[in-house]
Amino acid sequence: MLRITLVFWVGLLALTALWFAAAPGVLAAPGLFELRAFMLQYSGLLAMAMMSAAMILSLRLRWPERWLDGMDRVYRLHKWLGIGGLVLSIVHWLWVEGPKWAVGWGLATRPQRGPRPPIEDPVAAFLAGYRGAAEDVGEWAFYLAVVLIVVALLRLVPYGVFRKLHRLLPPIYLALVFHTIILTDFSYWTQPVGVVLALLLVAGSYGAVVSILGRIGAGRRIAGKITGLTPFPGVQSLEKLITLEPGWPGHQPGQFAFVTSVPREGAHPYTIASAWNPDSRRIRFVTKALGDHTSQVGQRLEVGQSVTVEGPYGCFTFQDDCPVQIWIGGGIGITPFIGAMQARAQQGWGRDKVIHLFHTTAEVDENALSRIRDDAAAAGVTLHLMIDSRDGRLTGDRIRAAVPDWREASLWFCGPEAFGQAIRKDMLAHGLRAKRFHQELFRMR
Questions:
Q1: Residues 153, 427: Cα–Cα separation, whole Å
Q2: For residue 238, what are the β-bridge partners?
Q3: What parts of the chain have a pLDDT lower than 70?
Q4: Helical axes 366-379 vs 335-347, angle rounded to 10°
Q5: Which of 54, 135, 140, 338 sits at 20 to 30 Å (Cα–Cα) from 412?
Q6: What is the pLDDT of residue 263?
Q7: Could you tell me the end-to-end alpha-carbon distance of the chain, in angstroms, rounded to an integer?
């Protein structure tokens, strides 16, 4: 989280510094309308920069994933940028309308303006000819973007509705690019702030076109067929076994993939719950009925059905030099650890480490728990099974009591985010180093 937080705020401050260098007159603005001209440029610049960066991150590229420590972090930053772009777009709109309201309410006086001097630069004159169109396009694109971003943030909106509406954002973004190119102060384009903005607009436009064409992640998609379905009714979960066509690059324990089983629903991210064997080319996912899609997925699937798997993604891969690892899987968060245990048992992965697995669950399915016990025994992993109604909640005290050498350990958590943050706070307060705590932020929306 620290890395994406730094990227967000450092980027914001860097763009602000570049803008100040291009518009030093803001500090000497004599009145509201003069200040308005500056703030329209500033708020518009930051809003479009954030939207452009969000559009780039939506492409699921490899380099941001490595740099930001996982696709889960990439999507979290994408969400923050969307929120930031929404807030700044509203601020931009308020600077457009607010001074007019102030004049209407008698709180301000509109300054007298003489005729505008002729524009001598031919490029600037050409852009100025589209000013009215850019203002109209920008206004309507703003209203639509606000609605769509708010919908994206409301988790009560069904995923299918969210996905269809979210696909409207790329063309709206392109409309806002037109608005930005025409209305950005022409003097900016020859200064560093303009160069940065231009690069962001070009990259963001590329991302928008890729999204419109449905090509996000296209180079990492592999076709497959469902070859097994096993329900675990006690925990409202379904295991899907998929045999892939040749081309899957393999995956590390803890990674995830996007699976498309119902085309109209699009791709959904699921943690991979199996080790990779290139001879069998089988991959396993365990999904839990948590939302409108996952609660119905078992009714829509059948053995022999064609699916598409895209990936692998993620950096929650248990790679460190600690002799001891503590794994915590809360509910369906057990899935990355299942894959890791199978890789350890079948391939010898991580055999030099002492591993304690804490699995906490409010629901019980004996078949599912029996599999976890068998996987742990085969992998030489010490399993601590905690059923909420019987054992209460897992706490830092319980972890430290069960793992005497916890100070030498790294801790890997996958489960409810608030639960993970509570464990993190407790363990760090007792001396665990922050860089040794790893948490999968598996909320892609």
A1: 31
A2: 231, 287
A3: 114, 155-156, 290-299, 442-445
A4: 40
A5: 54
A6: 80
A7: 16
